[in-house]
């Protein structure tokens, strides 16, 4: 029931999403670690809404991990780097991980306004779309995400 409510809420909230076109889009990699069809459909709704916002240029990867704390990406063989990596972790389906992780380099004065706007948009929509059941965390909220950021930068994913 809980995941059905989350899915329906995402459809309603993200379907209403509308943002002005920025001068330069944020390069986003959306990583789906979910293991159920219902959760994957929720991620697709989420991805479509992000695309329709006009704020992001993104790619998506569906990955299989044993734990939500496994490195879902490994070494980047594509050469393409991203400003923001959003991970929808395994465990979001059963509530054991109630977070979507937003991985960036540390946020500071050098951070582009478009990236800050994108992070804030995702945070708001995740909270609204899940009725407060899910929260989007950044590297500034959780030290473990800083470790992911270091690994992703070392492996060539994060710019």
Core attributes:
single chain; 159 residues; alpha/beta; five-stranded mixed sheet; 4 helices; 5 strands; 18% strand; globular
Produce the secondary structure layout.
Layout: H1 2-15, E1 26-32, H2 37-53, E2 56-62, E3 84-88, E4 99-103, H3 113-129, E5 135-138, H4 143-154
Would you write up a description of this structure?
The protein has 159 residues and is an alpha/beta fold. The chain has one domain. Helix content is 38%, strand content 18%. It has helices spanning 2-15, 37-53, 113-129, 143-154, and strands spanning 26-32, 56-62, 84-88, 99-103, 135-138. Strands 2-1-3-4-5 form a five-stranded mixed beta sheet, sandwiched between helices. Helix 1 packs across helix 3 (113-129). The longest helix is centred in the first third of the chain and has 17 residues, at 37-53. The radius of gyration is 15 Å and the shape is globular. Mean pLDDT is 86; it is low at 8-22.
The strand count comes to 5
Which strand order does the major sheet show?
2-1-3-4-5
Query: Element order, helices and strands?
Result: HEHEEEHEH
Q: How many helix segments? A: 4
What's the oligomerization state?
single chain
Low-confidence stretches: 8-22
Concise description?
The chain is α/β, with parallel strands linked by helices and 159 residues long. The protein is built from four helices and five strands, in the order αβαβββαβα.
